[in-house]
Amino acid sequence: MKILKHIALALIFIITFETLAFSQVHDRSWRRIIYQSEDNWFATEEAKSIAENVLLYQRAIGGWPKNTQMQKPLSLSEKEHLKKLKKTNEEATTDNGATTQELYFLSKMYKATAEDVYKQAFLRGVDYLLEAQYENGGWPQFYPLKEGYYTHITYNDNSMVNILKVLQDLKDDTGKYAVKLSDEKKAEVEKAFKKGIACIVKTQYKQNGVLTAWCAQHDEKTLKPAKARSYELPSLSGAESANIVLLLMSLENPSPEVINSINSAVKWFEKTKLTGIRVKREFDKETGKRNTIVVKEDGSYPLWARFMELDDNSPFFCDRDGIKKATLAEIGEERRNGYAWYSGAPNEVLKRYPEWKVKYGTPIKKKAPKDPYNMVVAKDGTGDFTTIQEAMYAAKSFPYQRVIINVKNGVYNEKVHIYSWNTHVSLIGESKEGTIITFDDYFKKIDLGRNSTFHTSTLLVEGDDFIAKNLTVKNTAGAVGQAIALSVNANRCYFENCAFIGNQDTVYTAGEGFKQYFKNCYIEGTTDFIFGEATVLFEDCEIHNKSNSYITAASTPQGQEYGYVFKNCNLTAGKDVTEVYLGRPWRFYAKTVFLECDMGAHIRPEGWHNWKKPEAEKFSFYAEYNCSGEGFQPESRVEWSHQLKKSQAKKYTKENILKSTTKWYQNL
């Protein structure tokens, strides 16, 4: 039940964060096309048709209007109107993701087609961002300048952060954008980026002499907090400040000023978080209207008010009359239900901060552990460390005896890395149900190119002779593609009474010739959720499918005697899962064997799939022996798989599978 509760809370946070990403609710279909379409789609005629619209909507100055569904077909009269409007430069903006998202779309079009028209439009868009920047480093909401609050330096809805992220990717040449800048243009971009970061540092609000956070708008001349619409009064902002800090935390080799800025903002987030409440949307079936209320709920994720008083951080709420109210319930129906008054975005800052702190922040002074070979991690501060990674940093390199890290129950939101020099480490949880390591990296989020999958792991093990017991490792990214929970790139590793939970690519077992052993573990996922090249024995484990797909994707090297061996395992699935393959070959020489396993009805009769690689049928080795359950149908298996004889199955002993230069497995 605890696990289900945490999953439910995580879903609440994700939904809340997505809902609060913009203060106004708009049709997201245009954004969905840009960010969720597969790369090869951008070479289609449909994409080119939409790209024509994007080019039409681009103003001559290089920017785009906001809240425009550019995928919708245009009539001839609409096209003629846009051609005339182009010269006026009216409504060009970076608000609500405008311009920055169109730049990303054009980059994808250029990558897919290499057509110069998209490149030139992209470069005009970059020039627009550079031209719109104030000398003090900030950006207005609209450019050319539009009268009113639109001239303020705008952090609202992440406008300035979005711009700086584009410039950051361009100056660092991360590969996110297919269009390459000239050296001269790249130098301009880098200069603009530095000015923007300097503006962020200068606008951080001081409360009684202490740095806190940022406001949604700052006056473009005085840099002081500024008012926008009637209900958007000068105030400190939880949501906008969170994304500013995440940007600052992404900087390599940050200056002392930036480090101080981050540390101060994090202290403010801790000070201003609201716990024990949840924002709930009720729906009245009779009136057809919704009502947003705040309810008490223990154990809910912390929230932050969108507006907080500049002098004491008190949350306040406003209707269109501009009169402050102390509670959400006191304002009218229209504003109460049509605006994002709370945000969970700072949770992401607090989750990432410990790792950043170790790398860049002022080191937290801690006493050396009483016993460097027997350390304790406890979130409540009663141990030697409050995070697992801190303990790893303190662990001896290449020790002469085993280093035991005891982890007390708690949810540890961190990426944990067992380095190659941290050999003979044991990570021992207090309980499998209560000791949870979790993070949410995934392929598109990492966005480092074709090998981004391998950077997504929550727990990465590179130190040989590693042991883990009594804990759960999760990747909570959801069904968003490749997202590893456990990555093991080390030899002689043992996992007992652990749970590994994810979706696609849950457990990666790496290392040619490496031996790894999972005993009495629970592994859950969707597609290829156990994959890699190591020799691995899974004994007495539960392997649980969450969708119709494939369990294993072995990439066993040619000549390696064993690949994946499952002994006495229980293959289970969700109630709607009915068509699962035992495995498919990631590489031609894949080897996977199931011995005396209980197979649920979700296993397909043919059992195995060749991944559209006919050659793999000749070279791979897929086999079963003496299995049971509705899913064990040996007479229906593909003809290129094997049903082992008793004499053949005898060789699949723990000693044979795991043998190494040492008999490391004997005392496990």
TrEMBL record:
InterPro entries: Pectate_lyase, Pectin_lyas_fold, Pectin_lyase_fold/virulence, Pectinesterase_Asp_AS, Pectinesterase_cat. It is an enzyme of class 3 (hydrolase). Residues 374-659 form the Pectinesterase catalytic domain. It catalyses: [(1->4)-alpha-D-galacturonosyl methyl ester](n) + n H2O = [(1->4)-alpha-D-galacturonosyl](n) + n methanol + n H(+). One of its GO terms (cellular component) is cell outer membrane. It comes from the Bacteria. Its EC number is 3.1.1.11. Pathway: Glycan metabolism; pectin degradation; 2-dehydro-3-deoxy-D-gluconate from pectin: step 1/5. Pfam families: Pec_lyase (PF09492), Pectinesterase (PF01095). GO terms for biological process: cell wall modification; pectin catabolic process. Signal peptide: none annotated. This is Pectinesterase.
